[in-house]
Design goal:
It is built from 10 helices and 9 strands. By secondary structure, the chain is an alpha/beta fold. The chain has one domain: Rossmann fold. The strands form 2 sheets. It has a 7-stranded parallel β-sheet with strand order 3-2-4-1-5-8-9, with helices on both faces.
């Protein structure tokens, strides 16, 4: 593609409601505030959550008369070609050209993918240098990664999403010899200890060795993550918008959650 290539971070999970777009937005703003040049690509043109989040941010800035860090954003729609092979070839060309163009002037590109399987979703995964899969801390969401025996609570086999990621790892290796660093982040974590929480942690530990991902703690169950969407804000904006005196212990903890995820990617 090009001798200069930005680090591509993909947020992916075939189950909706896992927090992919919230994660992507916080990564984008966090990296921008670290001084990196960041762009983002929304592959979920139908839902467009990340693009809408950024549009809300621009509207908030205009209304308040303030400046906040914003990335360059691109939205890529699925090809409308009737022929499947031709459509996939067009999707591949569009995504490759967009990544190549953005790489010329950016250090990192964050790609948000739809919560459903599609050729464009799979293709987006194959370009990841770092793949981040937010996973709600429940057996329902764990089913995306692995089939679990309901009686013994043992892993029976990797599930459809794990198999898809493995296929895209092979696709990436064949294309350019590079690897994908897969991170699974446990999202909406409860602050209370519970048997369910411990079992999820145990199963993910076993599965990580089997299918090849790193496990990190994600974002806690905090209402503020959802409330920030309409204003286009993130936890990393709170000090600039509300002032340091407005920070609560919950805000500080949430900012540290974002900081820990960024550190896990290891770009700095």
């Amino acid at each position: 593609m090009t001798t200069k290539r930005a680090h591509v971070i993909v947020t992916g999970n075939e189950k909706g409601g896992s927090g992919k777009s919230t994660t992507a937005m916080h990564l984008v703003v966090g990296l921008l505030r670290d001084g990196l040049r960041v762009a983002c690509i929304d592959l979920d043109a139908r839902q467009g959550t990340l693009a809408t989040y950024l549009a809300n941010r621009q509207r908030y800035m205009d209304d308040k008369g303030i400046d906040l860090p914003v990335p360059q954003v691109r939205v890529i729609k699925h090809s409308e070609e009737q022929n499947r092979d031709a459509g996939e070839a067009e999707d591949k060309r569009r995504l490759e050209e967009t990544i190549r163009e953005l790489s010329l002037s950016h250090d990192a590109i964050v790609i948000d993918t739809p919560g459903a399987d599609s050729p464009l979703t799979r293709l987006g995964h194959s370009f990841a240098d770092t793949l981040i899969t937010p996973l709600n801390d429940s057996f329902i969401d764990l089913d995306v990664l692995a089939r679990v025996d309901p009686v013994t609570l043992k892993i029976q086999s990797p599930s459809h999403y794990s198999e898809m990621v493995w296929q895209q790892k092979m696709r990436r290796a064949k294309r350019d010899g590079c690897s994908i660093d897969w991170i699974v982040m446990r999202n909406r974590l409860s602050h209370l200890d519970a048997r369910n929480k411990r079992e999820i942690e145990r199963l993910l530990g076993e599965l990580s060795e089997r299918v090849g991902f790193r496990q990190v703690a994600g974002f806690g169950e905090r209402v503020i993550y959802r409330e920030l969407f309409l204003a286009g804000l993130t936890m990393m904006d709170i000090i600039d918008v509300l002032g340091p005196e407005s920070l609560t212990m919950s805000h500080i903890s949430a900012r540290q959650e974002v900081r820990s995820l960024i550190d896990a990617i290891g770009l700095n």
